[in-house]
Amino acid sequence: MREDRLKVEESERTEAPELMEESERTEKTPKDPSPLSEEQQHVPQRGELVLQTGGSEGQPAVGALPQGGQEGQGGQEGQGSSPDPRVEGGTETRGPPPGGPQGGVLRGPDLLGYVGIEAVLDQMRRKTMKAGFEFNIMVVGQSGLGKSTLVNTLFKSKVSRKSCSPNYEEKISKTVQLQSVSHVIEEKGVRMKLTVIDTPGFGDQINNDRCWEPVLKHVNEQYEKYLKEELRVNRQRKIPDTRVHCCIYFLPASGHWLRPIDVEFMKRLGKIVSIVPVIAKADTLTLEERTEFKQRIRQDLVANGIQVYPQKENDEDAEERLLNNTIRESIPFAVVGTDREHQVNGHRVLGRKTKWGIVEVENVAHCEFANLRDLLIRSHLEDLKQVTHDVHYETYRVQRLTAGAVHQGGPNGSDLESHL
Fold it and tell me: For residue range 169-226, what is the model confidence (pLDDT) as tens digits?
């Protein structure tokens, strides 16, 4: 028995090295790869989009190009490569590639250095100062409400029709006749061509039926003039802009409600131009009367569906909405106009002198002229022009071109410019 055990142990010692050598050879020999389909055997060409699907842990995705995006230039596995954030747990996550066209916003800390994008503002400022800009304002209201005086006060110069006529004679026109006068105002290198359109005779007749038609006709004629110039084959590099950017509508300080003529005019004109209503000669009302009158007017505007500037649908963001809400709460502006200066506490101020004291035009405690000036010139002038072009003129253009295409008849129709 002892001899048999010795023989078995000797046989195991002899076979052990042979088994170990065979095991080592098996581990060193690579396993046969699994057969690939035609899609997996396809070699992507340069510039071809490759959808990557993750394999098992530690293995690259099938069909993925080497690091660097070019054939034959990939590094070794695990060196300098980063996992695709769209591939998680072997499942492809749909979405824009990192840094693609729909990537995030790159701000200052994300940039590698100074680019100079902010210099665009200086470029725009220089071009605007060199070319100047235009602003056309219309004043509508019956005679004696101080329309010319208020315009002169707004721009602190004699720009109204009355001020520019040396032998001007005040008389009541039999019909509404629109008259305009233009000036070039320059301040600190900025040039502005200001055009003031006056409407003498509006509301001055016994029968004021359809007295708003000449005003509506004038506004539409300016849109038509601009549209014709746009449609020319050889048009001017800069089209002269005679469109009405703003209409200041003067309400008499009656202390009651809107008159029927006021409702009918603003209801029609508010659809084609930006209207800013004001209470003229507001110093004839007490503070309590002024507050009640403003509330009644706002109620009338809402009840009759009258659109006044600024409209809520044109607010672009929360900051602008907050500013415009403050303006909407102040409409109509209770204003006082004058072109005379008086001495108050050692300073020269624009104001109207009464036996009770001096009404300072630019003092917000006395009237709301400063709010009106800020709206028209300092904060919303460019927005008034933009609303005129993007909203009112665009509405007219679409209606006009649609009507023109209908009247031309047939798919080939005549030239639209000749039709207009």
Answer: 555 555 567 888 999 998 888 889 999 999 887 877 777 888 889 999 999 999 999 9
Q: What residue ranges in 16-89 does DSSP mark as E strands?
A: 87-88
Give the chain's domains with CATH numbers.
124-202+212-402 (3.40.50.300)
Q: Where are the beta strands (DSSP E) in 142-258?
A: 179-187, 190-198, 246-251
d(CA 318, CA 175): 45
Token couple for 231: 């449609």
Q: What is the pTM of this model?
A: 0.69
CA 135, CA 156: separation in Å to the nearest integer?
Answer: 16
| Contact (CB, 8 A) for 142 and 202 | yes
The SS3 of residue 126 is helix
| Separation of alpha carbons 351 and 127, rounded Å | 37
> Which residues are CB-contacts of 66 (< 8 A; sequence separation ≥ 6)?
72, 73, 74, 75
C-alpha–C-alpha distance, residues 277 and 284, integer Å: 17
Burial class (CB in 10 A: 0-12, 13-18, 19+), 74: middle
User: Which structure tokens are listed for 322?
Assistant: 């907050």
Q: Give the long-range contacts of residues 399-405, CB within 8 A, separation 24 or more.
A: 400/223, 400/224, 400/227
Task: State how far the Cα of 220 lies from the Cα of 393, in Å rounded to an integer.
Answer: 9
Question: What six digits make up the tokens of 317?
Answer: 């963001």
Q: Strand 246-251 vs strand 275-279: parallel, antiparallel, or unpaired? A: parallel
The answer to whether 293 and 255 have CB atoms below 8 angstroms apart is yes
Judged on CB neighbours under 10 Å (0-12, 13-18, 19+), 388 is: buried
- Answer for the pair 253, 282: CB distance below 8 angstroms, yes or no: yes
From residue 20, how far is each of 6, 14, 189 by CA, in Å?
A: 22, 11, 95
d(CA 360, CA 338): 9
Q: At what angle do helices 213-231 and 394-408 cross, to 10 degrees?
A: 70
> 356: which DSSP letter?
T
